[in-house]
Amino acid sequence: MTTTTEGGAAPAKARHGVNLHVLGPILALIALVIVGALMNSNFLSAGNVTNVLARSAFIGIIAVGMTFVITAGGLDLSVGSMAAFIAGLMILVMNLALPSMGVGLPVMLLGIATALVAGLVAGWINGILITTMRIEAFIVTLGTMGIYRSLVTWLADGGTLSLDFGLRTALQPLYYSGILGISWPIIVFAIVAIIGEVVMRMTAFGRYCAAIGSNDQVARYSSVNVNRMRLYTYVGLGLLVGIATIMYVPRLGSASSATGVLWELEAIAAVIIGGTVLKGGFGRVWGTVIGVLILSLIGNILNLTDAVSPYLNGAIQGVIIVLAVILQRESKAGD
Amino acid sequence: MTKHLMMGAAFSLLAAPVLAQETTVIGVSIPAATHGWAGGMNFHAQEAIDRLEEVYPELDFVLATASDPAKQVSDIEDMVAARGISALVVLPFESEPLTGPVKAIADQGVWVTVVDRGLSEPNIQDLYVAGDNPGFGRVSGEYMVSAMPDGGDIVVLRGIPTTIDNERVEGFQAAIEGSGINILGMEHGNWNRDDSFTVMQDFLSRYPEIDAVWASDDDMAVGVLAAIEAAGRDDIQFVLGGAGMKEMIQRVMDGDTMIPADVTYPPSMIATAIELTAVGVTSSAPVSGTFTIGSVLVTPENAENYYFPDSPF
């Protein structure tokens, strides 16, 4: 926990040498890969690796945005519901535009634009309520979480919103195909992660986030526009939720109130496993990526083996999350 | 809608609610439309109420949807206190938390109809309209046996770990016993499209040869079909879902070979419960006991009877 008090300097410290606590999440990931490979020979097959990476992409892209929000001392519980709502909206808009536009690039671009704009607006609403209205992030996003979840249920009339069949076929390549055998979700996730890492480490914005999360009063006296920076973290997260949704919709071509349930907690868990401090002040984007992969691998390995009763899947996940965090804390105490 | 009427042995005349009131109020308390099946149930409840209010001018209905058990308890208490209901139709969110409050209302002389999920104490309700979960599993299993007379390897997707899911799976396993059908693996897809997609992807990585899938639910069948399609596997002959989602019934009707049949677990059972309660309140026809709604196999021949294009489910 020492990093919280000296948070502003933490990113610089992380760059110094190879500290043990930096290795914690990586070691956990390597251990999981070894366990998986020993338990099932198909674990390292190209098909399975692609499946796991592609399904990690939704939570992963969102978690990169969540890293900034948490680093700046915030929290966003609404992302799962927001994703469901944006997915529902995107499907509705595309279905409505279909008769006039026909299946083709324009209607797909319209859907993509809808998702991006809706994400930006949703993130902006969260951010404005938290910064200018000065309401606790936990409360604001708990509220919007309920609002978006109800809205998608209402839009779907309690059932499921389904994309027109022809549209779905046209849109499917967004999830299932890609370049050189690497599917789009994986490519987008990688790009988002790299940009996130660069922004966190090398830009003023990244340093401001850490400074605000560490001590917002000091940041304010250092002439950081605290409210604006915080707002940017929520808007950025909203945009990333929109991007994740663009690839979610083509996968099954539907959205319902069951879409994106608990994504917010998975994203937050991934951020914390990756070494970002929940209280803010220090963030690590590449750690978040490792965290996301750890979470998806646990589910994947449990599905590939009969070793554990499926009733215990949640318990195994819980134990590994806590262990991964303990691994960091212990080595931190030692440095 | 075919209904298998199995009135319980305890036939008793309905006396209490038929009093000299001008309008009789019937309260209907159901879980909110948080998933497809519940959405269909909400639709059918509203439709039944609209229809019955025209048929019986002396009846008034209060419909409340609850997002959690605590809200449902408050709803029911409000109905008794503010609207003076003489009958309650309730689909309990969870059995345990609702048992006490519903018992208190039944003790006040309000007619209680329980739907689908039973209360913890079985003798509170006057009428129980129940889905047949072991039967759902049995009908599904029997279909599997008839579709694969020489046996084969299947994978099973289970729902959210609950008694409902256990009863279905036990019924299924009993039906396929000794038939040469071998269950390679069972995992929980939680009656959710995304979860079942993930589980099916992993099943496909794990088993190079799968003959058929018991998705046990139509939402899960959607995820399963997408995973199979994406993997480009052609060893799987068919996927059997369940519940009676209109898109799946449509595919059965169209003779889709991947979805050759479906097994019903109709959300419209709420309509049955409301109708029977209305009959009980307005007439002297006895309706107490247990009314079990059987799970029916839907095939291309009879699919038309189970297709409700207006329902959200």
Q: Can you walk through the features of this model?
A:
The complex is a heterodimer of chains A (335) and B (313). Chain A is globular, with a radius of gyration of 20 Å. In chain A, a hairpin with a 2-residue loop joins strand 2 and strand 3 (182-183). In chain A, the strands form two sheets. Chain A has a two-stranded antiparallel sheet. Chain A has helices at residues 2-5, 10-15, 20-39, 46-71, 79-101, 105-131, 137-155, 165-171, 173-176, 184-202, 204-214, 216-221, 226-252, 263-273, 285-304, 313-334; strands at 160-162, 178-179, 182-183, 254-256. Chain A has a single domain (2-334), classed as Orthogonal Bundle (ABC transporter involved in vitamin B12 uptake, BtuC), CATH 1.10.3470. Mean pLDDT of chain A is 86; it is low at 1-16 and 331-335. Chain A is mostly helical. Chain B is of the alpha/beta class. Chain B folds into two domains: 24-131 and 266-295, Rossmann fold (3-Layer(aba) Sandwich); 133-263, Response regulator (Rossmann fold, 3-Layer(aba) Sandwich). In chain B, the strands form three sheets. Chain B has a six-stranded parallel sheet with strand order 2-1-3-4-5-11, with helices on both faces. A four-stranded parallel sheet of chain B has the order 7-6-8-9, sandwiched between helices. Chain B is elongated, with a radius of gyration of 21 Å. Chain B starts with 23 loop residues before the first strand and ends in a 15-residue tail after the last strand. The model of chain B is unreliable at 1-21 (pLDDT under 50). Classes of the chains: A mainly alpha (335), B alpha/beta (313).
